Amino acid sequence: METSNAERRKNTGFKISKSKFQAGTASPQDLHNLPTPARPTVDARDVVVPEGYTVEPVMVGLSFPTDVTFDDKGTVYVSEGGSSWPTRPYMPARVIALHANGETETIDMNVQAGPRGITWRDGELYMALKGGYHMQIVKYNLQSGELKVLIDSLPSGGWHEPGGPIFGKDGLMYFGNGSVSQQGVVLPAGFTVDMAKHPLAHDVPGQDVTLSGNNVRSRDPRMPYPYMVETGPFKPFGIAAEKGEVVKGDINCNSAVWRSRPDGTDMELLAWGIRNPFGMALNEEDELYVTDNDFEEKGERAISMDPDCIWHIKNASQPFGSITTPDWYGFPDFCHDGLPVNHPSHLPGRGTPAEMLMENHPPLAGPAAFLEQPHSCMCRMDFSRSDAFGFRGDLFVAEWGSMAPLNSPHPEDLTHGFRVIRVNVKNGTAEPFVHNKEMGPASKVGGGGIERPVSCKFSPDGKSLYVLDFGGVQVTSGNMLAFAHTGVLWKITKKEANNG
Amino acid sequence: MDNTTQMQPILIELDNETRSKQLDRAATWFNNVLLTQASYRKLVQDTVEKIDEPHIKQYLAEIAMRAETHEEVIRGELFSAIDRTPSDIRTALGTMAGKAREALGDMIALTGGARGPWQDLHQVYLSNYNSMGAIAVAEQLGLALGIPQVAHIAFQLVADKSTDQLLLQECVLEMCSMSILYHERF
């Protein structure tokens, strides 16, 4: 029987299994003489945490790690993303389990772009995966080895990332899916390889939208001659939009956040227009907050000085199944400060200024709960729920750090991020919580401190904050290189709690 | 104030045995890089002599000089970055492979109706692509091993060879009609 293109575009053939994994331990001397020149030293003494807290490395040598979670027996799980940021080289897509007795094992999978988010719940490891035309939410039974694909319908195949999955006190599963496009239109300013892998990928709106007819003109890097093409929003690369054209909204969209039952059924779209909801966290009142990363100042739709932000997803506080219209948070036409992308304050210093892509915008659901410096790249996050650690109710956010000068020409953006911040989401303020002695990654400022925090999660007892550090990355004005075996899992504990 | 503890972290694939094995495997690939580059260098050196057209001859002469430099960088800096030594046998095999590609070009010309040095130029074009791909793989191994020096050396070589590839493609496409339709040398 002939296989249709639609069938081919489904992700199939997913295999997953556990295997023993031998990991040695490292002495302090070892940590000052690591065999990876990209990160030759790991030294907790170079990491600044508030007085009264200790910091220690738990795992060293991780390759492109993405998230951390814990089970109820003291096992720490760390996901390694496979083909991640940038897409090459691929390192094994897997989850490394460090058991309480010190033994290690891996959960290996054959997907190219692997686990981006992981959460343990009732003996199952829930994972958000990238790769192919759809992101996936799957669950893996750690006892039986059974794998179930729960969500496999959300359009992906481009720049941004899945968010979650996380679980609320209501027992529901919350997850997100970032936009395919980097700047609202699929353009070669992102990684060209995405166009080769997924030439049909595009953003999908969560509501019906009317297009302005503004297209973006760019070179088609796939062609042997310098072909110029026009691309519109919510279209594959090279397809132009018409003025007044209506693109139908779909629950299976991107730049969006959903919830469902734990088995993936009864999926409910809460919000869309969120460029990259990679970090998601629920506080003790079950209020949902998500991160969003700013537009970039480069290429054919350049936008300047868009702050990173944290959104409060207000629809998550409404009864399950009651959302008839999702909230819209502004992507692809509004910056996180609520101003349109073509506002004078967002005109770029380099690249082509952005034009509005939609007409008759839905009402904006902001303002943001917190605005952060541009290009801080806020990633995964967690609320403190314990007086033993302190700062109960504050949101701890891992900041991967700037990709300037690649995505911004402003020198002040070079040091944004590279830390964990503590956010008071009620009054929109924040304080640095974990950082190096000088702001910036260890590879720039020297020493054996942190590079790029990608996730932070509290241990189940609430006493320790685990900070997952992606590792060494070199960024120039033209490219970005990431080095495997340079990731570190750090553990931060309040001394009183440690002693008590 | 000390904010650290004395816990011993676990090391992921950074122990001496695993590391040494992976570096040996990288060295094996680097010898393939050397073979493909030596093959390409020999082919492009020999082809320069066969071209009469002054501009293309100059382009190829410059490409040949770069090919020699690149081969030396691979033999020296690339291997040194992983503390391994290159195989002389692979270089000799590469040179032989370059001559074999010339013979292949002659055979294609004989059976395919092309004339003149165009078939050699075509083989140079394919050969550069082959060695460029091998070096690009070396770049990925540098990233996978956490060794920036390998990645940077390979990246620059690939960048140079990408530019050469554009030039070789242009020469091959421009001159194909002269060779195939007119049966003329150039």
UniProtKB/TrEMBL annotation, chain A:
InterPro entries attached here? 6-blade_b-propeller_TolB-like
Q: Where is the composition biased (Basic and acidic residues)?
A: 1-10
Q: Biased-composition ranges for Polar residues?
A: 19-30
Residues annotated as region Disordered? 1-42
Report the domain of life of the source organism. Answer: Bacteria
Its protein name is Sugar dehydrogenase
Upper lineage ranks?
A: Bacteria, Pseudomonadati, Bacteroidota, Cytophagia, Cytophagales
Automatic annotation (TrEMBL), chain B:
Source taxon at top rank: Bacteria
- What name appears for this protein in its UniProt entry? DUF892 family protein
Task: Give the organism the record lists.
Answer: Pontibacter diazotrophicus
